[in-house]
Structure formats: C-alpha cells, structure tokens
Amino acid sequence: MDAMKLVMCAVSAVALDLCILVMIISAYREKKAGTKSWQHTTGNMELASQDMIFPLGCDEVLIGRHASADIRLPDLSVSRYHAMLTVSEGVWTITDIGSKSGVYVNGCLVMQSILRENDVISLGNKKLIFRRRRDQVVR
Q: What are phi and psi of 22, to 5 degrees?
C-alpha cells in the first residue's frame, strides 16, 4: 500500500511539473507575440539626439524639462512640460502642450503634427530625430 502511495505521489509530481512547463512555454510565446504586436503598433520607433537615444516604450510619451517627464531634456530652453508624443495604429503624433518656445517639425512651427521617419523635432535648443529603432530586431 505504501508503494502505491509513493507511485501516486511521483505521478502527481510529474504531472504538476508538466503543467508548470506548459505554463512557462505559453507565457514566453505570449510575451513574444505581445512584443511583436507592440512593435508593429509603434513602428518600433525612437527619438535620438546627439548624445542620447530615447526608445518610445508606451503609447503616450511626455517630453519636457521636469523630472517627471518620460523624456527629460534638462535645458532651460525646453518647457517643464513641452510636448506629448502619442501613437495610434502605428501613427505617431507630436502635440505642443503649452510650451513657451514651441514645437518645430522639420523647421515648421506646429501645434500638432503626424511624424514620419527621420523627421527632425526641435524643442527649444534641443533637436531630436524620430527614427526606427536600430538596436534590436524582433523575429
């Protein structure tokens, strides 16, 4: 009888291990699919300055001088809360949110503008290039 309990316990442990393995594989596949979906939605874009690269990792990105900004540009020519980047169905838009010096896209002052790859965004004295991310390829 003890041998039977031992066998049943071993079978239960193996079944539990298999369930955990299936859950881990499913979570990995879901994460990979979610990453591909997010990168498709965002176009896998980033903002690049001369010395920094800012990956665009969410659907709303606040740019400004304030410490709470998602992309912080510590320059007095940049307003505390200068601009907002948003993405919807793969289309990125930049909106001036009341800055003092304005938002320029390719040299033109805008209140709101759809962004295209390699657009140059000027916020105060700072210039950022909107480009496709170069550091990773998702398969």
A: -65, -40
> What pLDDT sits at residue 138?
43
What lies within 8 Å, CB to CB, of 58 at 6+ separation is 70
Residue 8, C-beta contacts closer than 8 angstroms, at least 6 positions apart = none
What per-residue confidence (pLDDT) applies to 8?
84
Write out the two tokens for 27. Answer: 């979570």
Radius of gyration of the chain (CA): 24
Question: What tokens were used for 18?
Answer: 């298999």
DSSP letter, residue 77: T
Alpha-carbon gap, residue 117 to 87, rounded angstroms:
13
Residue 134 has what DSSP assignment? -
Nearest CA among 94, 89, 91 for reference residue 106:
94
Three-class DSSP labels, 36-57: HHHHHHHCCEEEECCCCEEECC
| Spans in the chain with pLDDT lower than 70 | 1, 33-43, 135-139
Per-residue confidence (pLDDT) for residue 137, from 0 to 100: 45
Compute CA distances 117 → 11, 81, 129, whole Å. Answer: 57, 24, 8
